[in-house]
Specification:
By secondary structure, this protein is α/β, with parallel strands linked by helices. The chain has helices spanning about 5-15, 30-35, 55-60, 75-80, 95-105, 120-130, 155-160; strands at about 20, 45-50, 85-90, 110-115, 140-145, 165-175, 180-190. A seven-stranded mixed beta sheet has the order 3-2-1-4-5-7-6, with helices on both faces.
Length: about 190
């Protein structure tokens, strides 16, 4: 079982049809999430990524996935739009694009997957925006909760969440990556 299986289980259990993903990358997870959600109705998907504008400097700063060689904004857009879902891809750094998105008077989102930049600053910025898109029914899943690191990833932010305001559930499995010596899991966050 992969930690990502939790995404599809949660989308299915809660019949989510409005999806937002921070860190679309090649669109593979997006495609699976959209197909899972389509069992429950018409789907709207918002995908945020730097796409082909990812530079080596940003890659290093964000400790993120590398450039999407061969997978550009246009390719991913075509890949996802063939599902028939309402797909909107937003290109750029989420420190700018998420606040702009929120200014467009967006309604709450059913399911939000946070898997973009891994710097503490970017995750904090993304979370500040994500909170504005939450309702009592919204499910937020953070990837890259590194159980053995505090200097990047979402662990410091998740561990600091107000337990009187948020339900926080660490989901199994924890996956170990020998090449990076990282223990990684996903965390589900909802409003109380």
């Amino acid at each position: 079982m992969s930690r990502y299986d939790n995404l599809f289980t949660l989308i299915d259990q809660h019949k989510c049809t409005t999806l937002l993903e921070i860190g679309t990358f090649r669109g593979d997870t997006a495609l699976k999430m959209i197909k899972c959600a389509q069992k429950h109705g018409d789907v709207t998907y918002y995908g945020f990524d730097m796409f082909e504008s990812m530079t080596p400097d940003v890659y290093k700063e964000e400790l993120s996935k590398g450039p999407t060689t061969g997978f550009h904004y246009t390719d991913i857009s075509i890949k996802l739009k063939v599902t028939g879902a309402n797909v909107a891809l937003i290109k750029g750094n989420t420190r700018q694009t998420l606040p702009e998105f929120i200014e467009c008077d967006r309604s709450p989102i059913d399911f939000i997957f946070v898997d973009g930049g891994h710097s503490l600053e970017t995750i904090e910025s993304d979370w500040k925006c994500v909170q504005q898109l939450m309702s009592k029914d919204t499910i937020v899943v953070f990837d890259d909760y590194f159980t053995n690191r505090e200097d990047f990833g979402c662990k410091p932010l998740v561990d600091s969440l107000d337990k009187d305001r948020f339900n926080v559930e660490h989901l199994e499995p924890t996956q170990y990556y020998h090449e990076t010596d990282l223990n990684i899991r996903v965390v589900k966050v909802t409003l109380k």
